[in-house]
Amino acid sequence: MHAYRSHTCGQLTKADDAQTVRLSGWIHRKRDHGGVLFVDLRDHYGITQCVVDESSPLLTELEDLRVESVITITGRVRLRDAAAVNPKMATGEIEVYIDALEVQSRADVVPLQVNSDEDAGDDHRLTYRYLDLRREKVQKNIVLRSEIIASLRNRMIEQGFREYQTPILTASSPEGARDFLVPSRVHHGKFYALPQAPQQFKQLLMMAGFDRYFQIAPCFRDEDSRADRSPGEFYQLDFEMSFVTQEDVFNTIEPVLHGLFEEFAGEGKSVSPMPFKHIPYKTSMLDYGSDKPDLRNPLIIKDATEIFRDGGFGIFAKLINAGNVVRAIPAPKGGSRAFCDRMDSWAKKEQNKPGLAYIFFKDGAGSGPVAKNLGEERTEQLRQLMGLEDGDAVFFACDKELDCAKFAGNVRARLGDELNLIDQNRFEFCWVVDFPMFEENEDTGLIDFSHNPFSMPQGGMEALETQDPLDILAFQYDIVCNGIELSSGAIRNHLPEVMYKAFSIAGYGPEVVDEKFGGMISAMKFGAPPHGGAAPGVDRMVMLLADEPNIREIIAFPLNQRAEDLLMGAPGEVSQEQLDELSIAIVKQPEAG
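Above: the chain's sequence. Below: its structure in token form.
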């Protein structure tokens, strides 16, 4: 028999009755029933109930062992009494009577209970992450992550892609977030950067003729933590294709994502059918108040600017004349003053707004201060515009167009939750397309890139030369699921003259392009194929499929909200010798006072 186990702790069934077996694992729980000690033995695969009674010399030794001690037992399988069968356990029909015991490792008093789901606090859990990872729910999440990554790899290979690795030590480039810098020992005063994404390298692979690339790529960005974003590193399904249109990219990746979510969605959950819905950016911002719409929410925002223009509701009329717009957000069955006042309070306390205007409908007419001032005719126009009935309400946002859209989107999301409109058993995908190539910087008034500067403008060079920059659209797209952006992507700019022109519109001369993106612009000059791709976030996909609200729950060793690794003590100080070798001096910050 094997030194440690003949079976795992999730393997034995009633078919193994009377066999002599050997199991190894952690003591999950002990129960003393007056002369009979039950030990739940746990390994990665499950739990087996083991038994020893007062007739055995092993009873005292087992009583002295703490939970989480690692042991090996040899014993006889026997059927449980009918009343003791546990149908919730794979091994619930049997138990193992212990004949021999070997202690592999004794555990101290554990600072975190593995056999309980008690909330120990994030920092405490991360300090003792090796214990936290032993918990069933956490371990299932990490296993799910592994299975999802394996499925993604297989699906991409089936689509004709090959996996290639790109560098981790590279050059710093202006890609929107802060770089993590790595000082060079050989080249004093110079730094590598960890890649924010393999963007340039994957495009260079296309220019090198590899045609279809993918990678489960680590990416590094020094940015603040959010529920759906790690503060330091994350992984994405990075892919790129040559000689493709935007539709080719969609048709290639949709079966991968649709198949993945159908595989792991779980019983009773549906995935939106292919092809996924395409929503232009402008439409998305108007209808949903977001460029990452949650399509499970049925509420549609409407433009109500003209109804309020020069109307009796003076506050809005003045704001409209100053260049603002009005968005109306419906609230079916939300037509009570108490509910409307609660939403108004939410807007003041959580959105830092002066209030949230509303109308609710009863007895065939609108009620509330807005309806009273706006008048019956315009209120009825609103009711018809929004398709509302008695018992419904409508809320309003009024501001500059972008700010108004964002606030209206927040109201829509809040109403979806408050009115229980969100179907939690659906995964709704969509593509948001036709993003603007450029935008106006609110602080400087100058033209800047809206998203990815490497995107191909729709209309190419002609559009750059003849159109208002703010009217130019890009072959750029996002894939969104349940209101979470999984990925940005684009058909890339593969023409050096178009790249120079696009950067010049954003205020960058050719010398800046040559300095910052010299490798890529050089490669373009020697024959570059049309190409495009995207990079769906692995962490966010796992988060959705695990139904976890925080991304830390699906990462084995995450950083906390302050970007600290409490287990390993990172970031940490280094020795003076290491600093001297790198020619780095630490400048102490003056103490506050």
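The mean pLDDT is 94.
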